[in-house]
Amino acid sequence: MTRLHISNLSLVCLLGASGPLSPALATAQTLPGHSMVSAAELKWVDVPSLPPGAKITVMEGPMNEAVPFTARLRMPANYRIPAHWHPAIEHVSVLSGTFYMGVGETLDTSKGMAVSAGGFVVMQTKTPHFAYTLNEPAEIQLHGVGPWGVTYVNPADDPRKKP
Questions:
Q1: Is there a contact between 127 and 85 (Cβ–Cβ < 8 Å)?
Q2: Residue 78: helix, strand or coil by DSSP?
Q3: Which residues sit opposite 15 in a β-bridge?
Q4: Is residue 138 a contact partner of residue 106, using CB atoms and an 8 Å limit?
Q5: Residue-wise pLDDT tens digits, 81-119
């Protein structure tokens, strides 16, 4: 008979962060390079590089260095992100709501694609694109390898340059 031996760390990886952890498993939270965060512990802040209304929480990073990052964005209903591009590949997972994205140098809702919860998008480096929500808020998870940034096709759309 073959026995399967699972270390505490392997068990944590198999279980993910869902559910309570026993005291023996809780030690994995303090191992260098590992982190576990409950949804209640996430710190949401305004996003200076996006129009007002969006909130971000960075779970892995920092986004401005050449390292992997993971962040979540919350956008209210009827939110618009004008055409822009990023210096790195953008990976987007839609967690809730419907998030719309389209390729082009201007925001054109007739060219956007609806991506509902569970959907996934990959946008290549420096590809001009836009995003928006309609009648419901949306939450997305963004991940990639930095350094990360937002460059607007039309510099007048950049909220960092507005008084």
A1: yes
A2: coil
A3: none
A4: no
A5: 999 999 999 999 999 999 999 999 999 999 999 999 999
Place of tokens 């759309």: 157
Instruction: Dump strand ranges (E) for 1-150.
Output: 45-46, 55-60, 68-75, 80-85, 90-96, 98-103, 113-116, 120-123, 129-132, 138-145
Domain range enclosing 144: 39-161
pLDDT score of 28? 44
Q: Measured between alpha carbons, how far is residue 153 from residues 82, 84, 105, 128, 161 in Å?
A: 8, 5, 6, 7, 14
Q: Do 16 and 44 sit in the same domain of this protein?
A: no
**Tens digit of each residue's pLDDT (9 = 90 or more) over 12-66:** 333 333 333 333 334 445 577 788 889 999 999 999 999 999 999 999 999 999 9
**109 and 149 inside one domain:** yes
Q: Domain with 86 in it: what CATH number?
A: 2.60.120.10
State the residue for tokens 């869902």.
18
- Tell me: do 17 and 61 sit in the same domain: no
Beta strands across the sheet bearing 98-103? 113-116, 98-103, 129-132, 80-85, 151-152
